[in-house]
Amino acid sequence: MRGWIKGIVIVNGFVLSRYFRLGPQQACYLPAPLLRKGPNDVLIFEHYKGDGEIKFSKEQIYEEAL
Predict the structure, then answer these.
(1) pLDDT score recorded for residue 40
(2) Is 54:1 a contact under the CB 8 Å cutoff?
């Protein structure tokens, strides 16, 4: 979640993850059983001002800690 600072990710009413800019993890893992057929709700609560861009990927993204 590059460009985001600190917050919470909620998927279909389940609190999936908290995130913080300091890394090294730059992604949230979403287990398949949390998804349902058809539309899914993804809510991102950012404590500060994020950049508004979200990217879904099949691979985990790791980088150097800031």
Answers:
(1) 95
(2) yes
DSSP code of 58? S
Range of the domain at 12: 1-23+41-50+60-66
* Coil, strand or helix at 32: helix
Q: How does pLDDT run across 34-44, given as a tens digit for each residue?
A: 999 999 999 99
Flag whether 29 is in a domain: no
Give the integer Cα–Cα distance in Å for 58 and 49. Answer: 26
Question: E-assigned strands of 1-66?
Answer: 6-11, 14-20, 42-46
